[in-house]
Specification:
Low-confidence stretches: 192-199
Bound molecules: zinc ion
Largest sheet: 5 strands, mixed
Radius of gyration: 20 Å
Number of helices: 8
Helix content: 25-40%
């Protein structure tokens, strides 16, 4: 990977984009904008500095034989599309069937956040969340459904506002057993028919 530029270089790049947009970066309202954008980027893209495996490391194995589905639904996230660098806003539903080990429920939300705070493609993010959870926790299966609105579709081009994209990744029991998959979809409020959301 290329070397990380300095903050000063990053701010200079924002100044260039302001000029490119057609405005004057030295006018009062825009004078502090490059610094603000650089700070915002640190927040938007904090996921690059975080290791998802590290987040899931602490597992709880004493679950007294609990072997039913664990689902965390409606995990709100904000990401940025890697094609236009504009927001993708949506929610993720994450479920798994434990095999002796479970993780604290807040870890699922943090896992979503680590991948959301990077430049993303929704399909890729869905796979990353599911496969990381499967790989680290090794449950009997993982299911991830993400529904999101892409501002690159809603604010530019020919697309209509409010358009939503649904992606899913089913691993293990969720892929092989239709009744497990149905149960998960029912818990997150989706029919098994894979209907589109009413957004
Ligand atoms: Zn885009």
């Amino acid at each position: 990977m290329a070397e990380r530029p300095t903050r000063q270089q990053a701010e200079e790049a924002v100044r260039t984009l302001i000029l490119w947009a057609g405005d004057d970066p030295s006018r009062e309202g825009l004078r502090d904008t490059p610094a603000r954008v650089a700070r915002a980027y640190e927040e938007f893209f904090a996921g690059y500095g975080q290791d998802p495996a590290e987040i899931l490391k602490r597992t709880f194995s004493e679950v007294e034989g609990y072997d039913e589905m664990i689902v965390m639904s409606d995990i709100r996230f904000e990401s940025h599309c890697e094609h236009h660098m504009v927001p993708i806003i949506g929610k993720a539903h994450v479920g798994y069937l434990p095999d002796k080990r479970v993780v604290g429920i807040s870890k699922l939300a943090r896992l979503v956040e680590v991948y959301a705070r990077r430049l993303q493609v929704q399909e890729k993010m869905t796979v990353q969340i599911a496969d990381t959870l499967q790989e680290i926790l090794q449950p009997r299966g993982v299911a991830v459904v993400i529904e999101a609105a892409h501002q690159c579709m809603t604010t530019r081009g020919v697309h209509k506002p409010g358009v939503g994209l649904i992606t899913s990744r089913m691993v293990g029991a969720f892929r092989e057993d239709p009744s497990t998959r149905r149960e998960f979809l029912a818990v997150i409020g989706r029919s098994a028919g894979g209907k589109l959301p009413n957004t």
